[in-house]
Amino acid sequence: MRPWWLSVWSFCFLFSLAVAPLPAGSADAPSPIQIEEWEVPFGGRPRDPFAAGADAIWFVGQGAHYLGRFTPATGAFFKWDLPDAAGPHNLIVGSDGIVWYAGNRRGYIGRFDPQSGAFENVAMPDAAARDPHTLVFSKDERHIWFTVQSGNFVGRLTLADRIVDLIAMPTPRARPYGIKIAPDGRPWIVLLGTNKLVSIDPQTLALTEYEIPAGGARPRRLEVTSDGRVWFADYSRGYLGMYDPAAGSFKEWAMPSGANSRPYGMASNGESRVWVVETGVFPNMIIQMVAIGEEAGALDDMLDKSANYYEEQVDNAVDNLTALMEPMIMSVLGVLVGGLIIAMYLPIFQLGAVVSG
Length: 357
Prior knowledge:
Elements: E1 13-19, E2 33-39, E3 46-51, E4 57-61, E5 66-71, E6 76-81, E7 91-93, E8 99-103, E9 108-113, E10 118-123, E11 132-137, E12 143-148, E13 153-158, E14 163-168, E15 176-181, E16 187-191, E17 196-200, E18 207-211, E19 219-224, E20 230-234, E21 239-244, E22 249-254, E23 263-268, E24 273-278, E25 285-290, H1 291-295, H2 299-356
Antiparallel strand pairs: 1-2, 3-4, 4-5, 5-6, 7-8, 8-9, 9-10, 11-12, 12-13, 13-14, 15-16, 16-17, 17-18, 19-20, 20-21, 21-22, 23-24, 24-25
């Protein structure tokens, strides 16, 4: 069995998950998936893969300061070393093929042209914005929105003139982390240091905070589905949360693996299906949450089914362990009983030998 610490993020593995669509009318049916694995030859903590087409997977090497590209059809890897120790946190690739990355340790957003090999850095206008974190394109790719976790900003880079606008978070040490663009073009951000979400008006840059009812909530990643609802992973409490901007209401559901599930990475698709990775359990679990099922009042039942599945897995593991331990237990009991019998009868035999002698 592979040791737990050989994770895809920490020790140089990329996973390709080809998820087959669910049959119509079978929202609860499991999807068959094929998992393939390739070892990244460069090391350096590869992370945050970005699919720029069917056969170009870009990623960053945060620990070794490089940009990488993988071609699944041939299995070939390519690497471009950054000219400084920028510790890139993530990257995105535009429709023009240009790569943009977060220079997390050097306080800039980097631009890389794979055709010419040229690098360009866009510095932050405020030295306090020292750690650009996560980048996303606006719908029209005219802007890049990004979070600055330790600096406590959300930023917008206008690609045409390289102007950077920084929006300070009103809550101290809010730690803006994950960021996504809603169908209406509005950026949504989760604040890992608080129990809040944030949205920003892309025209006026006005910021609005939304407080999650649970004071201990610490949202880390989020997804916005096609209906405009905001789904977030509560990393601290082990919950999946949802905010409906139209209704102005929050809902939440406990993750199947409980308080220590540490939900982190999230993804969604055009069918309003939300996927969440539980990173606090071994092995890590990928959980599918069906957003459309929530509208029909079926999401609680689906989560119950997931919980029942994991409970059954635990029961099976306990049964297998018990079956393996039974021979050992019987052997130990045999030795104990045998020793007790010998301890009882040996003095009698010795006494008989003395009397007969």
